[in-house]
From TrEMBL:
The lineage of its organism: Bacteria, Bacillati, Actinomycetota, Actinomycetes, Kitasatosporales. One of its GO terms (molecular function) is acyltransferase activity, transferring groups other than amino-acyl groups. This is Ribosomal protein S18 acetylase RimI. PANTHER family: ACETYLTRANSFERASE (PTHR43877:SF1), AMINOALKYLPHOSPHONATE N-ACETYLTRANSFERASE-RELATED-RELATED (PTHR43877). GO terms for cellular component: ribosome. PROSITE patterns: GNAT. It comes from Actinacidiphila rubida.
């Protein structure tokens, strides 16, 4: 029988090692084709949650002191998002169906309710027992995604054939990390104008964007030891950012990169800007960061256009995930 969840108000090095053991075992069991993150990367993500948010952590140990389960509850302080929390719960494969998950979820929901949250969002791999676990506890599916992978070493010729022709009325610009001051206002307007398309799903709490939040988001990536790359399309007519794509490179600049948002403002769609932007990003990574071997992207099933763009670029499906939401007002 697992012990009660232990809140990690001041996590120790041993706590992080235990957390990493649970995460590694679960990933190897549930998605054996996925690379296991190094312990330093796990620690960095837990201790630098991002702008306008805090993370509450719990660790469950067994009777012999072995790590059994983990939970991270992310609480937001920015307007438009305070009502919704995100939770990432993991139970070690050897300790599943023994009550640890139920006990941990009860603790997490009590904490979210105590923080005046109206709902909790979490994500699980489609077709796994996690879906049944959530459905039995009144969670409802709100967004279905396909996780895609582009192996850069397997598609050098395809990357070389990616479109690199000028788009009349637009120019490309790129930067690392925080947006340059001269583009900050225009990029912030683009983020605000494409927030729904980038986040996807109903009422997932995207909230508003301002320049402070844009800068803080980039700084949070750097604080984890990672690197944020952005490519944007700028309208020649008015200097506004018409669309953008973001990619996060891991610490050490080797291994897998993670696709963040790609979005084009509604009034600029239909000109192929999404494909142009992402193709430019792939060429940039290939030429400037040879240690990056693959790129992972999550594509909402409802976003058929972006799925077509990703497929044209050589991304291939790996597995499917589902975002679930629990309405705390009904409990």
């Amino acid at each position: 029988m697992p012990a009660n969840p232990i809140p990690l108000t001041a996590p120790t090095a041993e706590d992080f090692r235990a957390w990493h053991r649970v995460q590694s075992a679960a990933l190897a069991h549930d998605r054996p084709d996925e690379p296991v993150p190094v312990e330093d990367a796990v620690r960095a993500r837990l201790t630098t949650p991002g702008a306008d948010s805090t993370v509450v952590l719990w660790l469950v140990r067994g009777t012999a002191g072995e790590p059994v389960a983990t939970a991270a509850l992310r609480l937001f302080s920015r307007p438009g998002h305070v009502h919704l929390a995100e939770v990432d719960m993991t139970v070690h494969p050897a300790h599943r169906r023994l009550g640890a998950g139920s006990r941990l979820l009860s603790t997490v929901t009590d904490a979210a309710r105590g923080a005046d949250c109206r709902g909790i969002v979490t994500e699980v791999t489609a077709g796994t027992p996690g879906e049944g676990f959530l459905a039995a506890r009144d969670f409802t599916p709100v967004l279905r995604l396909t996780r895609l992978r582009l192996a850069l070493a397997e598609a050098p010729e395809q990357i070389g054939r990616l479109p690199d022709v000028p788009h009349a009325g637009y120019r490309l610009t790129a930067w690392d990390g925080v947006v340059p001051d001269e583009l900050a206002a225009a990029f912030t307007r683009a983020r605000a104008g494409t927030a729904g398309a980038a986040a996807g799903g109903p009422d997932l709490g995207d909230g508003g964007w301002d320049e402070a939040r844009v800068r803080a988001a980039a700084e949070a990536v750097a604080a984890r030891g990672e690197r944020l790359l952005t490519v944007a399309a700028v309208s020649e007519a008015d200097g506004e950012v018409a669309g953008y794509t973001e990619l996060v490179l891991p610490a050490g600049l080797s291994g897998r990169a993670q696709q963040y948002d790609t979005a084009v403002l509604p009034e600029h769609r239909g000109h192929g800007l999404g494909l142009w932007l992402k193709a430019a990003m792939l060429r940039r990574v290939r030429s400037g960061h040879p240690g990056i071997t693959e790129i992972q992207a999550d594509n909402a099933d409802e976003n058929r256009h972006m799925l077509a763009v990703n497929t044209a670029l050589g991304f291939r499906p790996r597995h499917r995930t589902v975002k679930y939401r629990l309405d705390l007002r009904k409990r």
